[in-house]
C-alpha cells in the first residue's frame, strides 16, 4: 500500500499549466483544467486504421496533408480533427505532450488549436491497453480541487492528492467489489471511452458508488506504476478517483 504522500509525489506529473496569468488561468472545475467531458464527440466519417503509436511528425503530417492549405478555415477541419483524435485513441502516441514546446506551437499552427487534440495526446501515451489489463485490485485516492497560486509573477494551477478512498476489485467474471458494493460491469464502447478522450479497453461499473454508473479507464498520464482513473459516468472529469494496482 502506498502512502498518500508517496502517491502525491508519484502523481506530481499532474501539476499543469505553468504560464503567464493571462494564458495559464483556464477553467478550474476539473482537476486538469477541463470543465467537463467533451460530450458526444464528432464521429469520424472514415474507418480508423490501427498501427503503432503515432509520433509527433505523424500527428503534424496528418493535419497538413488534409487541411494544410487553410488550417483555420478549411471546410473539413472539424472532420479532420475528429479523425485525428480517433486515430490517436486507437493507436496511442509515442511522446508526452508539453504545453510550452515547439511541437505544441506547430500543432496549433497546423489547425490542432482545439483542446481535443492536446487532451487526446495527453491521455493516450503508449500502446492502448486491453480490458484484461484492468482486472485486479486497486487502491483508490481522490484528487482535491485545483489550487491556483502565484510565485515569482507566474500563476500555477496544481492538483493535490487527497484522502484514500478504499479499494476497487475488477474481476474477469464480469463483477466488481468497490468498498463492499458489489455488482456487474460491462465493456465500454469506443464512443463512451472517447467521451473521456481515451482509447483502449475500459469497463462501466453498473450501479456502483452512490448508486451511479462509473467508467474505469487506464490512466496513461502517470508513468510510474499501473494506474486507473474511475469517473462518474455522467460528469466524467468533475467526479473521479485514481487507483494504483495493489
What's the alpha carbon Rg, rounded to whole Å? 18 Å
Total number of helices:
7
Query: What is the total tally of β strands?
Result: 11
Spatial gap, N to C terminus: 7 Å
Series of H and E elements: HEHHHHHEEEEEEHEEEE
Shape: globular
Q: Which structural class do you get from the secondary structure elements?
A: alpha+beta
> How many structural domains?
2
The overall pLDDT, averaged over residues, is: 82
Unreliable segments (pLDDT under 50, ≥5 consecutive)?
Answer: 3-33, 35-40
Structure description:
The protein is of the alpha+beta class and 246 residues long. It has 2 domains: 105 residues, no CATH class; 98 residues, no CATH class. It is built from 7 helices and 11 strands. It has an 8-stranded antiparallel β-barrel with strand order 2-5-6-7-8-9-10-11. Helix 3 packs antiparallel against helix 4 and helix 4 runs parallel beside helix 6. The longest helix is centred in the middle third of the chain and has 15 residues.
Amino acid at each position: 500500500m502506498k502512502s498518500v504522500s508517496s502517491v502525491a509525489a508519484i502523481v506530481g506529473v499532474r501539476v499543469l499549466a505553468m504560464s503567464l496569468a493571462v494564458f495559464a488561468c483556464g477553467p478550474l472545475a476539473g482537476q486538469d483544467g477541463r470543465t467537463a467531458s467533451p460530450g458526444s464527440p464528432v464521429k469520424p466519417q472514415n474507418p480508423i486504421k490501427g498501427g503503432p503509436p503515432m509520433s509527433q511528425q505523424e500527428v503534424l503530417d496528418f493535419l497538413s496533408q488534409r487541411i494544410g492549405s487553410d488550417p483555420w478555415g478549411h471546410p473539413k477541419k472539424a472532420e479532420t480533427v475528429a479523425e485525428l483524435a480517433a486515430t490517436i485513441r486507437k493507436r496511442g502516441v509515442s511522446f508526452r505532450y508539453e504545453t510550452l514546446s515547439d511541437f505544441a506551437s506547430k500543432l496549433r499552427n497546423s489547425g490542432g488549436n482545439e483542446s481535443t487534440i492536446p487532451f487526446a495526446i495527453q491521455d493516450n501515451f503508449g500502446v492502448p491497453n486491453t480490458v484484461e489489463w484492468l482486472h485486479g485490485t486497486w487502491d483508490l485516492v481522490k484528487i482535491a480541487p485545483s489550487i491556483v497560486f502565484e510565485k515569482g509573477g507566474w500563476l500555477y494551477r496544481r492538483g493535490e492528492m487527497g484522502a484514500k478512498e478504499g479499494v476497487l476489485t475488477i474481476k474477469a467474471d464480469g463483477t466488481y467489489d468497490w468498498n463492499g458494493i458489489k455488482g456487474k460491469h460491462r465493456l465500454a464502447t469506443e464512443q463512451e471511452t472517447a467521451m473521456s478522450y481515451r482509447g483502449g479497453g475500459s469497463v462501466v461499473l453498473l450501479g456502483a458508488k452512490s448508486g451511479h454508473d462509473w467508467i474505469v479507464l487506464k490512466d496513461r498520464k502517470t508513468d510510474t506504476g499501473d494506474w486507473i482513473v474511475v469517473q462518474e459516468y455522467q460528469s466524467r472529469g468533475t467526479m473521479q478517483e485514481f487507483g494504483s494496482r495493489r
